[in-house]
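#lab-general

N.A. 3:47 PM
ok so I finally got the sequence cleaned up, no stray characters, all 334 residues accounted for. can someone with queue access submit it? mine expired

B.Y. 3:52 PM
send it over

N.A. 3:53 PM
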Amino acid sequence: MHRTTRTHTLLRFLTTIVSIGSIQTAVLAAKGDDNIELLQATDRYGPWQVPRPEFDAFLANHPNATGNYAIPGPNISAPANPASSSNGNESIVDGWSWSIVIAADLPLVNASDAPKDDARARFYYTGGKMTFNAPSSLLGPGGNLTVNDGWQVCLFTWQLDGFPYTDKLRSDDGTCKSVLSDECIADMKLAAAKATVQGTCVCPVSSTIPSCSRLGGAAKVFNNNCYGTFRNASYIRNWEGAKLETYAFGDTTAHHLGNNTAYDNIGSLAWPALISFSNKNYGGILEDSMTSLSCVRATDAVAGSTVPGDSSGNRLSTGWLSTGIVLVLYVLML
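B.Y. 4:20 PM
back already:
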């Protein structure tokens, strides 16, 4: 009789713990506009002054979530050949994409900025990396991209930290249509294409584009600081492994293992990015398929993890699971 009573009490306690875990995750998923804080990696160091080789190696070997977004792009190994020409659509090749990787618990190894020991456990941080990828089919024998001299590209990215971030983007499918209309996207792409032809890479800020400004607060992320970078053929040839890192980042607060707050918050961000190709020998704006806007987000969980911000609570509950097992074993021993 006493054993049955104790069993029911502990089971109710365990059920309460699981419910708390679900509530915490739901609160994270339901947050509204928020100001994001991030640490940016450099060539020598990752976030928290972790040596860059260790940051890169851990992301490559221990990711929790990834995302890959294929986009149309030209055959930059040959001169521009628009789809409207008599030779067909030979300029378009597969293999262009944006990718992102997120790791929930990067260790603060050899970090000069590690927090003071609180005698509880080792410290970790959440970090990630976003990359623009060229087709491997364009790699030459020496491992560099084969690029016709006429090609040039403008790459646009928007700053997320330090600005209000709309929660709608956390569920975007990669098209940015969770916050932008088709008309706005088309006009942003046209503005970017014109800038690329001129070699100026002036950012298409949404507040200056009527079809975007009419969207009001929904499009405000695209009013943040924007970085437009011009790359000519010589620069593109030097992309190591046909990849161009565009942003490497980490959260500003270290945590103990099992605390998934930063993973759910930072890992669920969608990163707006716009790429536009042109060929200086063509003399005009190429087809719409040569310019693309993406909102890059980690939507694919690796084995043993869940997608950041997943309201199912699966990943958050793993920490509670071990506690539940201990309690159940205790019940069975009574």
